[in-house]
Structures are given as structure tokens and as C-alpha cells.
Amino acid sequence: MVKTALIVDDSLTFRQMVALALTDAQFAVLEAANGQEALDKLAGARVDIIISDVNMPVMDGLTFVKQARMRPQTKTTPILMLTTESQVEMKQQGKAAGATGWIVKPFKAAQLVQVVRDLLP
Which residues form the Response regulatory domain (predicted)? Predict the structure, then answer.
């Protein structure tokens, strides 16, 4: 069965880069430009993993993670933060919010795909 990933990033370029890496690895991909748009998409879709930036307009990534964790359908869904933020304090905030993992941009496509596969059952 094909796994579905939701990519949440305000940068169209980064969404496209992540989408390309994942579609090449046989994933279906949904995209959202911010946390609120992602929550709206989650209302009508089942996803196997979420990959989110931290710094976005409308709703930032950490707020999005907290909101997603309150929903029954995404309570245990792996959420990988893909961001330029590398400070230990920010990573701790991400973990406290419910993030499963953290990758700092720039990233290598093969590394991202491997982490995604490792996080999925």
C-alpha cells in the first residue's frame, strides 16, 4: 500500500524538493503552505507521516504540531520537523510539542527518505 506524506512549508521550492524526493521513493504527497492549511487538509485525508517547517506565516510549525497531536487521527502519526532551526532549545520545544524527529535544512534527499522510512512501521 502506498504511504502518504503531508509536507508543510511556506517555501514552494522546499515543498517541491521534498515532494520530488518522496514521490521518487513511491510516496503519495499532499502539500500545505502553513500549519492552518495543513490542519484543514488533515480534516479530509489520512496521512502516514507529516514533514513540517517551523517558521511559517498564519500558523507556525510548533503550534501546528500541538494542534495535530490533539486530533485522534494524527495523535500518533510521525511528525518530522524539516527546518533551518538547529538550536537545542528549539529542538526541545519541538519534542515537547510532539515532534517525532528533526532534520536541519539543507538536507540530502536520500537522508530524508531514509529517516521517513525509519519512522514508518
Answer: 4-120
Those residues with Cβ within 8 angstroms of residue 43's Cβ, 6 or more apart along the chain or in another chain? none
Q: What pLDDT is recorded for position 21?
A: 95
What architecture (CATH level 2) is domain 4-119? 3-Layer(aba) Sandwich (3.40)
Q: What is the mean pLDDT of the chain?
A: 93
If DSSP codes are grouped into helix, strand and coil, which group holds residue 106? coil
Rounded CA gap, 70 and 15, in Å? 25
CB 20 within 8 A of CB 12: no
DSSP SS3 for 50: strand
Task: Say what the pLDDT of residue 95 is.
Answer: 92
Q: Quick one: which of 101, 99, 104 has its CA closest to 118? A: 101
Question: What is the DSSP secondary structure assignment for residue 31, as one 8-state letter?
Answer: E
Model pLDDT for residues 42-58, shown as the tens digit of each residue:
998 899 999 999 999 99
